[in-house]
Amino acid sequence: MDIKNNQSSSLTEEEKAAKKLEKLEKKRQQLLNDLSNCNLNTLEQRVAWLLNHKPETRNSDVTLQVEYWKAFESDLVGGSYIDLNNYKQATRLPSIARSRAHIQNDHNLFLASEEVRKRRGKLEEDKRSDVIVRDKPSKSYSVFADESGKTDTYLIVGSLWILNGIGTRKLIDAIAKFRNEKNLTSEFHFKRIDKNNLQLHLEFLSLLKEHSSTFSFKALHVERKGIKNVDQALNQLFFNLLCLGVEHENSTGRAPLPRSLSFDKDMASEGPDKLMLADLKEKLRIHSATKYNDDLYLDEFRSVDSKDLHFMQIADLFTSSINRILNTAGDGPKDIFANAFLSEFGMSSRSNSIELLGDCTSILDMI
């Protein structure tokens, strides 16, 4: 204990501030992971989930409290009223407001409108007169992506798109129940599929199909031959994938703009990933401004470990299935699963040329 105190006292103020920020960032990333996995066990997780999916709660603590009661303490609420005896048991406004303030002020997530931030005194002085960042739209695209084929014939990027964040709670609950019933402790990963667990993975595939109204799959590939810089090619594929995905969802009216876009990719290497994501976000910012008049709001762009996110594991199964069919096709358990995946969601490995991308081709799409 004395050693820790001595170490702490020997740090400079700048070092202490840096350690505090590092600790806060870890908690911020963990909260985002919890929301992606619909882990809603604590007050902070639940408040953050409401702030994310119900934007009207960001500006009013009373609205936030009412929505909290409806979503998580519905047994205490009778229609549009709450009995005084039940009110004593319900989560109180000060607790909810403190959690909201911590999420918005310390984690800088799910912010209130410019007007409300001004009133709360939480808008930076240099932004008060001319705020150029638009408020986050109420609806979103949440994209979980993976890459494959760096040493094979084709380079591939695949992705899972979540279009209904609230609806995915049922999917996450179903996955948790499935894992519990099967006594599963490890993550789903394509490379682990073998003859002993093939049936288990096929059952998981059926579970995904049952909840497919809340998500879609998108992927692109390009022949690797002649490409000198594989990483740059993959980065360009991710950019094209997001541009085409947004264009499809918006033009068909299935998930029209304005919407926010969050993007999580399976972590390859932390440093290069950060550089790639910063570049990707800047390119998309320009694309949004020129094509959509900034109606595409860019939210969190992260690289994460697939073991932390159920949706990233699904993206891995999808992307690896494409890779199996295009690059290493055979007749083993992995091939059976890969073909079943594509068949289950009405996809085909037949390539259809997309004029916009030249020699890039869209493989499957969009349920």
Q: Describe the biggest sheet? A: 7 strands, mixed
Low-confidence stretches: 125-132, 350-367
Under CATH, the topology of the largest domain is which?
Nucleotidyltransferase, domain 5
Number of strands: 9
Strand percent estimate: 5-15%
Broad shape: globular
Radius of gyration: 23 Å
Structural class: alpha+beta
Helix content: 40-55%
Strand order of the largest sheet: 7-6-3-4-5-9-8
CATH architecture annotation of the largest domain: 2-Layer Sandwich
What is the string of SSEs from the N terminus onward? Answer: HHHHEEHHHHEEHHEHEHEHHEE
Q: How many alpha or pi helices?
A: 14
CATH domain class of the largest domain: Alpha Beta
- Give average pLDDT, whole number: 86
Please render the helix and strand layout as text.
Elements: H1 2-9, H2 13-36, H3 43-53, H4 61-72, E1 77-78, E2 81-82, H5 84-87, H6 93-106, H7 114-120, H8 125-128, E3 140-148, E4 154-162, H9 168-181, H10 198-210, E5 215-223, H11 230-251, E6 259-266, H12 270-292, E7 296-304, H13 310-327, H14 333-344, E8 352-353, E9 361-362
Parallel strand pairs: 3-6, 6-7
Antiparallel strand pairs: 1-2, 3-4, 4-5, 5-9, 8-9
